Amino acid sequence: MAENVKRDKNFFALSLKGIGRLQNQDARLVIQSEMYDVFAVFDGVGSAKNAKKATQMAAMFIRKYHERFLHERIRLSAMIAECNDYIVASNLIEPFSTVCIVVILKHSEDVFYISVGDSRIYLVTNQYIEQISKDDKVSDSNVLNKCLGMAELGHGDFEQKRFRLERGFLALCTDGFYSLMEKNKLLFFNVLNKKRPSTIRENLRKMIKGNNLDDATLLVIK
């Protein structure tokens, strides 16, 4: 019988303020526990009055309450739905944020995820980059039809999905990052598949800095 080996995930992050932005409204979250790891990125909706506050509140809620939803079984949908309720209950004006979040079990290749808004989860292998998540946008526009902080969203609007990570690694990112990557996918693919995390991060920083109109955040999980 194969030994049940605990797999600890390595990760690194990069986040750059967008050109002309007064502050970086993105946020990221990493939680590593005995049973699972949680990775998330948040992107404050640019025109919303309390976008930065929304990203901070979402990250804080998940950090504080994750065990309630993930300890005995993975209830990611319920966690994000209650996170949304928490933000809405703040009564802030326009507390809007995207989120993409993955939960990786320590003794398994199973990955659970939810994406709300237009931040993305990619699978990166030595052969391709594939978008795993689906954007919540009105067709052929940049208008979001779903994000955290929307009072009209109910618990049924947050769907937990699952897949097995049998090869490659995951990259979570906001639109300020992938809008550049999608324009030159081969170049980004080659950089992301370099061996040393420090080399990847520095190369990506040089490629993004001064070119990202929006805040650009990347969280790579290997």
Please describe what this structure looks like.
By secondary structure, the chain is of the alpha+beta class. Helices cover 27% and strands 27% of the residues. The chain is built from five helices and ten strands; from the N terminus they run βββααββββββαααβ. Strands 1-10-9-6-7 form a five-stranded antiparallel sheet. It has a five-stranded antiparallel sheet with strand order 2-3-4-5-8, covered by helices on one side. Helix 1 (51-70) runs antiparallel to helix 2 (76-89). The longest helix is centred in the N-terminal third of the chain and has 20 residues, at 51-70. The radius of gyration is 17 Å and the shape is globular. The two termini are 26 Å apart. 40% of the residues are buried. Residues 1-6 have low confidence and may be disordered.
- Range of helix content: 25-40%
Radius of gyration: 17 Å
Cα distance spanning the termini? 26 Å
Strand order of the main beta sheet, please? 1-10-9-6-7
Structural class estimated from helices and strands: alpha+beta
Mean pLDDT: 93
How do the SSEs run, as a string of H and E?
A: EEEHHEEEEEEHHHE
Low-confidence stretches: 1-6
Please tell me what the overall shape is: globular
InterPro entries: PPM-type-like_dom_sf, PPM-type_phosphatase-like_dom
Protein name: Protein serine/threonine phosphatase 2C family protein
Organism: Chryseolinea lacunae
Pfam families: PP2C_2 (PF13672)
